[in-house]
Amino acid sequence: MAFSALRVLKEGLTGNSGWTPHWRDPAPKDEYDVVIIGGGGHGLATAYYLAKDHGITNVAVLEKGWIGGGNVGRNTTIVRANYMMPGNSEFYSHSLKLWEGLEQDLNYNVMHSQRGQITLFNSDGARDAAMRRANAVINQGDDAELLSVGQLKKTLPYLDYDQTRFPIYGGMLYRRAGTARHDAVAWGLARGADRRGVDIIQNCEVTGIDTQGGVVQGVQTSRGPIRAKKVAIVVAGRSAQVAAMAGMRLPIESHVLQAFVTEGLKPCIDHVVSYGMLGHFYISQSDKGGLVFGGNLDGYASYAARGNLPMAEHVCEAAMTLMPMIGRAKMLRSWGGIMDMSSDGSPIIDKTHIDGLYFNGGWCYGGFKAIPASGNCYAHLIAQDRPHPAGAGFRLDRFATGRGLMDEEGTGSQHNLH
Ligand SMILES: Cc1cc2nc3c(=O)[nH]c(=O)nc-3n(C[C@H](O)[C@H](O)[C@H](O)COP(=O)(O)OP(=O)(O)OC[C@H]3O[C@@H](n4cnc5c(N)ncnc54)[C@H](O)[C@@H]3O)c2cc1C
User: Fold this and answer.
1) Whether 395 contacts 415, CB under 8 Å
2) pLDDT band at 164 (very low <50, low <70, confident <90, very high)
3) From atom 31 of ligand 1, which residue's Cα is the shortest distance away?
4) Whole-angstrom Cα distance, residue 103 to residue 79?
5) How are strands ordered across the β-sheet holding 170-174?
6) How far is it, in rounded angstroms, from Cα 186 to Cα 188?
7) What is the pLDDT of residue 133?
8) Ligand 1 test: best mutation among 297, 338, 368, most atoms within 8 Å of CB?
């Protein structure tokens, strides 16, 4: 069913009785050309672009829970293209361009809102680093603008500029950055893939990967074995566990990242604002009015999708330091997601040592913005057995050879610091 203004009007006048489910609920077949393990944003985008760009539709997405239950439905939804390292820079630029056409492409309102992101800096050194990043972004063909304190005061009047501990020196504005509604992204991609013939199979956990003589044969699942010519792993926080089913040991650790949301408020924060002092802090206001914010990882490896109280306190401390007005808001919910932290902080989209087995992961806490390009590049790799130019730097062997590492944060091989 196609969405249009006319359709919405008609359904509104006829009791909304004509809407049908967005995707089918098929039983798994015995065999597929491609099996995708993981129905998060990246898995669904891969299925969507396999069908749309490469005409490969005999595809199953196997999801152990439900669509949108993983990190794709748990993140703070910031979409931006301000990466600096060659490899990352062109990839995120590609992703932002895909975001800009995604709603028309999917015929689905993913509420992509290019409200602009402002990254604050609080020292001369931080301003230099911000300028360097901005110049790299501009060289890539994207946009960045330096804002003075005077300009910031007009744009973000609610910040505490008078604090002596971390005075604000200025900010970098990325106008095309913003947010999108996370669930809608998963639902829109699922619907788009399903309409092209992809089977989306929920409540189907992959428990084993079958190989013979170095060639993939299929997967074992909680709903029986499924044969496949190609198997694509894309399970975010569960990457190490699922890759271990094929005997692989990955340069990835899983860590918890929390997010927080307040009660719904009248519109007061127009941009995404991020702040590097006191750890890390970022905030935006959702379309429902809640202030959505977060900080750094909890700091230890874990598979628990919930976080610790010290980090909650730390994030609230940063929020109060930056914008004391937030102390008047009531915090409504907090939750955690399991982040697949790679040792250089950049992702992997590559073949594996097993013929027909592919791996996509290591998105750390930045994979929401990557969803369209990740799916686009992974589908290209699976269909054509050669990397897409925009994702060609995300090779798995860089961790073994040391060549082509993309340490965006410059923190060295410490998963929890990226
Ligand atoms: C609190 C928080 C804030 C974040 N904020 C941002 C942000 O502002 N901007 C940004 O760009 N990124 C952000 N991220 C990161 C982003 O959400 C992730 O990098 C991205 O969603 C990961 O990819 P995914 O959507 O495919 O993951 P997921 O949605 O987690 O998908 C993986 C799926 O694999 C399934 N799976 C696992 N094991 C199996 C198995 N054995 N068999 C079958 N299925 C399996 C899981 O159930 C899951 O549904 C944030 C993350 C969190 C937690």
Assistant:
1) no
2) confident
3) 40
4) 14
5) 145-147, 170-174, 117-121, 272-275, 281-285, 290-301, 252-264, 331-342
6) 6
7) 95
8) 368
